[in-house]
Structures are given as structure tokens and as C-alpha cells.
Write a structure and sequence with these properties.
The protein is of the alpha/beta class. Helices cover 52% and strands 13% of the residues. The protein is built from 11 helices and 5 strands.
């Protein structure tokens, strides 16, 4: 795979200039890859995807103007042959599910080795899905209907997940009760049940769980 005709043509999309330029330089050293362009946000990514026609787009999720998930949705709808791999620094289950639902073919972690990223690029052009780590199984189970959202959130009910999201957003119990039009006591009961199911004892640990599950952005 050394000729330019057989190289994977890649567009890199990330709003962090140092990371984007650095990754482009590292990937360009591999004979299997040709970096055809770079974009700093989702809007630019959509335009370049159309004009450059890359084989694969390495797409950051959190960007200004248009985030990576929305950009992925637009690109895949317009160009079904273009493969998108999400670049992420967090193994956020929820984030990855949204990206896959938008049409991404998988994801790579930003701290992956260059060899691992190149292997992922080659694999995805062959039609494979690329997902690293234990979170992949949970994501696939959610997408295929093998597990339910209740399974995904470790037995939490929809109301408990809703309250957890508000807790992680910094709301006190009284504020949560007002927002959801329920009593303080009901909020406390839900919190108690939530703590028991997750085997946690304080709000700070609950917030960490919410971040890991992608319920809030950090």
C-alpha cells in the first residue's frame, strides 16, 4: 500500500490547532495515509468533505459553530461513501452512541498510538467498524436493542437519570424539585435509590458517573 493511488485519503477535523497539525504531520509520515486537508470546525468539515472527497474523516466531537456529531450527520447524508471516525479524548458512552447514530463508523481515542490510528483508518476503508475498549460492547448492545437504557445506566429509571443530570449540572435538591414540579421528599427518595443502585455515597461521585456516561459535557 505504498502508491498514492492506494493510500487512505484523510481529512482531519479538530478545533485544537496544535493537536490537529501535529496529528496530520504524524499521519503523513505513514505511506498508507495521505492527509488531504484539515478543518477547525464542523462547518468547514462539511465544505471540505464535499470538495476533497476524502476516504475517511477523523472528526472531533466538541467544536464551535457546528459540532462533530451534527457535521457527521450532514456529511454521511450527502456522501454515504465517506467514512467518519470520531476522535475523542473521553470514553463517553452517550457521546459515542450519538456519533454512531449520526453515521460514524466508529471512534479512536486521541491518546491512541499513530500505528493504532492508521490501522483504524485502513480497517474502516475496508468496511469494518472501529471501536476500542470495553465500552464498545455496551454501545453495540444499545444500538442493536440487546440492552435497554435502564441496563445502560446501571438500573437507573428515566426519572433518576433526569435527576442525576440536574445534580451534575450543579442544582440543589430544592431547585430540582422546582424544575421537575415534584416535592423535596420525592427528590431525596430518588437520590437515595440512585446512590444505592450505583453504590455511591455523595454528590461528587454522582457527578463523575454522569460525566462518564456522557450526561453532561466537561
Amino acid at each position: 500500500m505504498s502508491s498514492s493511488a492506494t493510500r487512505v485519503r484523510v481529512l482531519i477535523v479538530d478545533d485544537q490547532t496544535l493537536f490537529r497539525v501535529g496529528l496530520a504531520g504524524l499521519l503523513a509520515e505513514d505511506p498508507r495515509v495521505e492527509v488531504v486537508g484539515q478543518a477547525a470546525d464542523g462547518v468547514e468539515a462539511v465544505k471540505l468533505a464535499s470538495s476533497l472527497q476524502p476516504d475517511v474523516i477523523l472528526m472531533d466531537v466538541r467544536m464551535p459553530n457546528l459540532d462533530g456529531i451534527q457535521a457527521t450527520r450532514q456529511i454521511v447524508a450527502a456522501q454515504p461513501d465517506v467514512k467518519v471516525l470520531v476522535l475523542t479524548s473521553l470514553e463517553s458512552d452517550n457521546q459515542i452512541i450519538h456519533a454512531l447514530q449520526a453515521g460514524a463508523r466508529g471512534y479512536v481515542l486521541k491518546d491512541s498510538t499513530v500505528e493504532s490510528i492508521v490501522s483504524s483508518l485502513v480497517a474502516v476503508t475496508s468496511g469494518d467498524r472501529v471501536m476500542a475498549s470495553a465500552v464498545a460492547n455496551r454501545v453495540l448492545e444499545m444500538l442493536t436493542g440487546v440492552s435497554t437504557p435502564k441496563d445502560f445506566y446501571d438500573g437507573l429509571t428515566g426519572r433518576e437519570v433526569e435527576i442525576l443530570k440536574l445534580v451534575a449540572g450543579g442544582m440543589a435538591n430544592k431547585q430540582i424539585a422546582f424544575t421537575l414540579s415534584i416535592s423535596d421528599k420525592t427528590v431525596r427518595n430518588h437520590m437515595s435509590n440512585m446512590y444505592e443502585k450505583l453504590d455511591i455515597r455523595d454528590r461528587s461521585t454522582a457527578v463523575l458517573y454522569a460525566v462518564r456516561k456522557g450526561l453532561i459535557e466537561v
